[in-house]
Specification:
The protein is mainly alpha-helical and 179 residues long. The chain has five helices and two strands. Strands 1-2 form a two-stranded antiparallel sheet.
């Protein structure tokens, strides 16, 4: 189980790196007159994602979950793919990416990278959903996977509506984000 705890710790480290990037990007956006919306749901998002990282090893330990290679290896591949997609989103959005809903007025919508597909408006949330299923299932923490999925679906419903309202004020463009 120690390797699983190390895997969850690595994902936690990745989340800390995201927060560092988000804080830097928040300063960039604020300097350009950005507005933040959706502050009410942000604490719930922090609690839910922190809970995922705590619950994964806790369920494995407390419920004595077995390691099932036929499930673990595909879920590890999904987890790695989710991280790659997340960082593709972060790099595509550049200084406009954030863990909060922050919009700089007058900037065009980003339509490059994973945002080029009109049918996939929020690819970063695909990464979040995939990670929320895969990370627990790497070590058969199925209760955590199910609970996170249900709670995350409710939270993403609120979050995506909030983000869509905020983005509706920007001008649509076919150019990628400025670096």
């Amino acid at each position: 189980m120690i390797w699983y705890v190390l895997l969850v710790a690595a994902v936690a480290g990745e989340r800390v790196a995201e927060l560092v990037v988000a804080r830097r990007n928040e300063r960039w956006s604020t300097a350009r007159g950005a507005t933040e919306t959706g502050q009410g749901h942000y604490p719930a998002m922090v609690v839910l994602h922190t809970g995922l990282l705590v619950a994964c090893p806790a369920e494995v330990w407390l419920a004595d979950r077995p390691f099932v290679p036929a499930l673990a290896w595909p879920m590890l591949a999904v987890l790695v793919g989710a991280q790659a997609l997340r960082w593709w989103c972060i790099s595509t959005l550049g200084p406009r990416w954030n863990t909060r809903v922050i919009v700089v007025p007058g900037l065009p919508l980003v339509t490059g990278g994973p945002y080029r597909w009109r049918w996939l408006r929020h690819p970063n949330y695909v990464a979040v959903v995939a990670e929320g299923v895969a990370l627990p299932l790497v070590h058969t923490a199925w209760v955590t996977a199910a609970a996170f999925t249900v709670l995350n679906a409710a939270l993403l419903t609120v979050r995506i509506r909030c983000e869509n309202r905020a983005l509706a004020t920007t001008v649509t463009s076919t150019t990628p984000a400025p670096a």
